[in-house]
Write a structure and sequence with these properties.
single chain; 374 residues; alpha+beta; 6-stranded mixed β-sheet; 15 helices
Length: 374
């Protein structure tokens, strides 16, 4: 069920191709969010988002295509509310639409359980008129995805992949669909951002309760929280060579969330092992170079109105220093880490500004010169 919903959402959003424009080099977090004016649906506060996966979808009443997403957003909210997903549909700031008009459209399109707002803003982010746009925040409040709300380029992750990843990584869903009676407060605590370690410690004590129902529920909580934490460690370890920064960040999060438990100890052991892993550290250095390229790319994106402008001579002259820095970092990455997975991401950025062809041409000339010299 989960995969079906997420797949449909990714396919539906694939038709829209203009990303959110981040004005700073770093992705925003929930602390940068201002919800704006509440229109209909559950009234939310940014404070209650702690521990939840939050999806904000921007739309415009004057663009019919941006409203076609409501049905899927409703399905997402209903399917994953137990796992802590909160969906916000926000109409962009407008002088031609008021709250009543937006509410009428929302009712007509069947938006019932999602929260509807007007004029939501994210500090450092500019939302254009090509909507829908998506901003996705994980359960730690970090921005997991911002930009094109659809599939990624071939062999890269798209919006639906990031959403699935965030939902599966949120502790709120660790206890599954099993309804707790005696320990119902444990499930509520997870949704309210209580660390799994605090709940796990209490459950371990209650496993020996004289009340059979309490003991059984405690065993269920211990088993599921332990399994969930172990899966997070395994998932992080699988990223060791393909995405080392996320591998380390995820292990650090597990160590924090499961502090003073066996799962937390395993996460700390995994982190310690990374320090002596030569291949991991090599990949990490490569990805750090890629992150520098991404930061430059984000700033350049903010200065370009569209794809055409990014490759214009005027744009190149105006941003010559930044483009030279991109080339320099790319050359260093390719020379120092030719087999790194980060190279594909670097080449994608270079291609975006039509810089990759010039570099390959330069390499070809250098190889020809070496042959002649021999």
């Amino acid at each position: 069920m989960r995969a079906t919903f997420l797949g449909k959402l990714g396919v539906l959003l694939a038709a829209f191709s203009v990303p959110l424009c981040c004005l700073a080099g770093e992705m925003p977090s929930l602390k940068d969010l201002d919800l704006g004016e509440h229109v209909t649906g559950p009234r939310r506060t940014v404070r209650e988002f702690a521990g939840h996966v939050v999806l904000i979808e921007f739309w415009n009443i004057n663009i019919s295509g941006s409203m076609s997403i409501f049905a899927e957003l409703e399905k997402q909210q209903n399917a994953h509310s137990k796992e802590g997903l909160i969906v916000i549909a926000s109409h962009i700031k407008s002088n031609t639409a008021d709250a009543q008009a937006i509410k009428s459209v929302a009712d007509e399109k069947g938006a019932k359980t999602i929260s509807m707002y007007l004029g939501t803003t994210i500090k450092g982010v500019t939302v254009g008129n090509n909507v829908p746009y998506a901003a996705l925040f994980d359960n730690t409040g970090k921005c997991a995805y911002m930009g094109l709300p659809g599939p990624g380029a071939p062999k890269t992750k798209g919006f639906a992949d990031y959403l699935k990843e965030c939902i599966e990584g949120a502790p709120a869903g660790a206890l599954g669909d099993h309804k707790l009676v005696k320990l119902a407060s444990f499930a509520d605590a997870l949704k309210n951002n209580t660390p799994p370690s605090a709940i796990l410690k209490k459950a371990l004590v209650l496993v020996n309760s004289s009340d059979a129902e309490t003991a059984d529920e405690a065993k269920y909580v211990v088993e599921n929280l332990t399994t969930f934490g172990t899966k997070l460690i395994e998932s992080a370890d699988a990223l060791k060579l393909t995405n080392p920064p996320k591998c380390m960040a995820d292990l650090q999060q597990v160590a924090k969330d499961y502090a003073d438990t066996d799962v937390g100890q395993e996460a700390r052991k995994a982190l310690a092992a990374l320090k002596d892993d030569k291949e991991f550290n090599s990949q990490m250095r490569a990805w750090q170079l890629l992150e520098k390229m991404k930061a430059i790319d984000t700033k350049l994106d903010a200065k370009a109105k569209d794809k055409t402008e990014r490759t214009s001579e005027k744009f190149r002259r105006r941003n010559a220093d930044a483009l030279r820095e991109l080339k320099s970092i790319y050359i260093a990455l390719k020379k120092q880490h030719p087999d790194s997975n980060a190279l594909a991401g670097a080449e994608e950025i270079m291609t975006k500004y039509e810089l990759l062809g010039t570099e390959k041409e330069k390499e070809g000339k250098e190889k020809d010169k070496e042959k002649k010299d021999k």
